[in-house]
Amino acid sequence: MKKGLGLIIIVFLLSSCATKPKALFFEPGATLAVAGFSQPRHSWEMLAGYIYETKEISPQVLGELDTLLSQLVNERGQDFVGPKIVRQCQELVIGREDKSRLSAFKYWVKVGQCVPVDFILVPFVFKWQERQGKEWGAEIPAAVILDLYLIDVKNKQMRRFHFEEEQKSLSENILDIGKFFRRGGKWITAINLAREGIDRGLKELGL
Fold this sequence. Notes:
Order of helices and strands: HEHHHEEEEEHH
Largest sheet: 4 strands, mixed
Oligomer: single chain
Mean pLDDT: 83
């Protein structure tokens, strides 16, 4: 009897100490808006982190990133309101709110309310370094720094994904051997590096 009771106690303690699954942040069936990429240049634009002193990123690159993000969200079978409509709400919020009293987080919550949606995905890009050279021998490797923020408009909560990578050769970082072979041993372009980062971010944010 004592042995049986002891076994029950041990099982109870192990189960109570086990890692509990994380609650879903983005619930199935929730509505989503996807904002366009931007490059914050001022601290008041930031949702988290800090400003990077990097070169200005061209509108063409921002457009390519918008297309890529929309494509990757769409591939997951997720319906969403795209950047074009979100930009209209951005202009409306800016026009009717006192910007001096509006934090970046409150601004994006109001944009989400304007759309309206349950969640809004806000992407920032801070660094964009194109590969200089060919896929089998690059003089300068591709490098990308970006953030994805998933904001719960109703509950006013936020989750962040940060991606920062400059491609390294295998000799520079042997720990990335798996990534090296997945890329076919090639030096990839900045847009392909961004694709890897965005894809990973969407998975981590539960989209």
